[in-house]
Amino acid sequence: MRYALITGLVLGLALSLGGCAGGERKSGREETIMSTESERIGERSLRPLAMQPLPLGSIRPAGWLKGQLRLQADGLSGHLDQFWPDIKDSAWFGGDADAWERAPYWLDGVVPLAFLLNDADLKARVMEYMDAILKAQDESGRISPGEDTGRYDLWGVFLVLKPLIQYHEATGDKRVPEAVERCLRWVEGHIDARPLFNWGKYRWFESLIAIYWMYEQTGEDWLLDLAVKLHAQGFNWIDFFRRWPLKQPTPKGKWTYMGHVVNNAMAVKAPALWWRLSAEDRDRAMVKEMIRLQDQYHGQVTGMFTGDECFAGLNPSQGTELCAVMEYLYSLEILLSVTGEAEFGDRLEKIAFNALPATFSPDMWSHQYDQQVNQVECSIKEDRLWTTNGPDSNIYGLEPNFGCCTANLSQGWPKFAAHLWMRSADDGLAAAAYAPCVIRTAVAGVPVEIEVETDYPFRENISIHVRVEEPVRFPLHLRIPGWAFEATLTQGDELQGNLAAGTFFRLDRQWSGETRLTLRFPMRVRSSRRFHNAIGLERGPLVYALKLGEEWKRVNADMPLRELPHGDWEVYATTPWNYALDLSEETLDRDVEFFEHTVGNMPFSPDGAPVSARVKGVLLESWKLVNGSAGELPMSPVSADGPIKVLTLIPYGCTNIRVAEFPTLR
């Protein structure tokens, strides 16, 4: 019988079903219900995905997105293996440096980066590193370097399987499925005597990516039994959030795994992944409750939540770790695939177009450990507001505070590009997120090319060209953002409205030759009330922030590895930042005026911002700099007697220093 190890799970399902049926539970029913439920789960195996990601290489970035990936490949991502010891001399590649998470982290982003760009040099290096990992796997199936002392945290193993799978998708390397299967066999035996601990315990669900991938190829039940064993040994995020206690900022110096920002960014996908096996709808429903709680008590206008290292409350002067941004993006991509719910695409775009680019220098040669929504100075300062992070956490540099983010900074843009379109459950294609790209795949054996031409998120229009080699019928599912009221779709000369915001619009037709579609998402300015009744301003998927004058000062020049271009930098404001906005939420369309500019080679930069806004504000002399950060945000509305100034706002992702949650005038 399938799932010998899930008796307890099945019994729980049976009991809950008995309770839902109403009335008394008869003594003879439990065994029948359990048997029926076992058969139901056995028949279904894994719940199917709502949308299946396309194999790596099916989507090619174009336009500004290709330029952004090129910047990344020409910056830190494409060069860490040439000078940074934790990658260059990694034990995963036969060296004597880090043998745990850093090389797998780097590969998890650089594998898709290399193949999305079709960069010959980067692909050659990636293939060399993957070959070294595959050849080093021992007879037992263990794939991690070093001796098996029993104190090797399995997080590194769970992590390396993800780039291996992507590599297989891109190259078809036949060694990979066998290597993944042998590694999972080794994990199955290993955890019997040496249960999960530390990071592996809190990130156990990341192993489900590889386990499910393997199961969908082989159908072997031991893989799902392994998933149940890992679930039993891992931290139960679902139960934890049902009684969630972390509603206050973490006291300074109190570090915990369960409050760790990166663990929580990863964990939002855990209930959906587990639901594929448990078949309990309440597991899947917990995803939205987790996100709601994180937003309510620690959320920021960018769609992220604070954590410098652990949950830090709603204050926009607190920080959010770069790794959390990367992992939240990936979690949302998984949630879109599992559930097919449009709201996860909205959140994905919001973070990708705001928090992701803002945590890098525009040339992507330096990054922060922590970014702040109200970030008015990036400097080395003791005793900042951080819960546990160090004094250099918000400077732009090679490895500020801790090198995990240096290793993990690469996956954001490439995985976003690779998940723009997916295959829908009805054998169609779905636009999960929007950016310029070209998709090449096949439907019903017919080659299909879809070209997306757009300057979105900086513009409202998206042109979609569908090209087929012979007539074929299939549906397109076009995500309509939740903010895009009165969205329209034009097919030739036919204009179609009534595209419901916050849904996927299904366009089912026979395609022949080339068809051009044009989506228009009207972008109206919106506001939200934040910490201390401050206001955040958004338009389309973009958050807007005050543009500040900048002075970059090089620091740590005498430290190893800090030669240019991968140096460390402080950034200071050369213009005032402490303004209260003079606007009314009832008249935002009149109070905020927008202007379009050229979309250039570096759109996510202060000088290259493709759109800007003008608002009015008054300087607040009482709101001051405190130890390198914006001081306590005044409670709005505030009183101020100074002259009215015209202020320039630009997209949050285009800023290096900024204010994005503003006091408002009385």
The main pleated sheet reads as: 7 strands, antiparallel
Q: Name the structural class.
A: alpha+beta
Percentage of residues in DSSP E strands: 15-25%
Report the mean per-residue pLDDT as an integer.
92
Distance between the termini: 69 Å
Number of strands: 26
- Count of DSSP helices? 22
Low-pLDDT windows of residues = 1-44
Q: What is the rounded Rg?
A: 25 Å
Helix content: 25-40%
Bulk shape: globular
The largest sheet has its strands arranged as 2-8-9-10-15-12-13
Task: State the main characteristics.
666 residues, alpha+beta, Immunoglobulin-like, 7-stranded antiparallel beta sheet, 22 helices, 26 strands, 20% strand
3D structure, described in words:
This protein has 22 helices and 26 strands. With 666 residues, the protein is of the alpha+beta class. Among the domains are: 4-44, no CATH class; 84-234, no CATH class; 421-454 and 461-520, Sandwich (Immunoglobulin-like); 527-654, no CATH class. α9 crosses α12 (221-233) and α17 runs antiparallel to α18 (342-353). The relative contact order is 0.10. Mean pLDDT is 92; it is low at 1-44.
Secondary structure layout plus pairing:
Elements: H1 7-20, H2 29-44, E1 51-53, E2 59-61, H3 63-74, H4 80-83, H5 85-88, H6 102-117, H7 120-136, H8 155-171, H9 175-193, H10 198-202, H11 207-218, H12 221-233, H13 237-242, H14 261-267, H15 270-278, H16 281-298, E3 319-321, H17 322-339, H18 342-353, H19 355-358, E4 370-372, E5 377-378, H20 404-408, H21 412-418, E6 421-424, E7 429-431, E8 437-443, E9 446-454, E10 461-468, E11 472-480, E12 487-491, E13 494-499, E14 503-511, E15 514-520, E16 525-529, E17 535-539, E18 542-546, E19 550-555, E20 568-573, E21 579-581, H22 588-591, E22 593-596, E23 611-619, E24 625-626, E25 629-630, E26 645-651
Parallel strand pairs: 7-11
Antiparallel strand pairs: 1-6, 2-8, 3-4, 5-20, 6-7, 8-9, 9-10, 10-15, 11-14, 12-13, 12-15, 16-17, 17-18, 18-26, 19-20, 21-23, 22-23, 23-26, 24-25
Helix pairs in contact: 1-2, 3-6, 6-7, 6-8, 6-21, 8-9, 8-11, 9-12, 11-12, 14-17, 15-16, 17-18
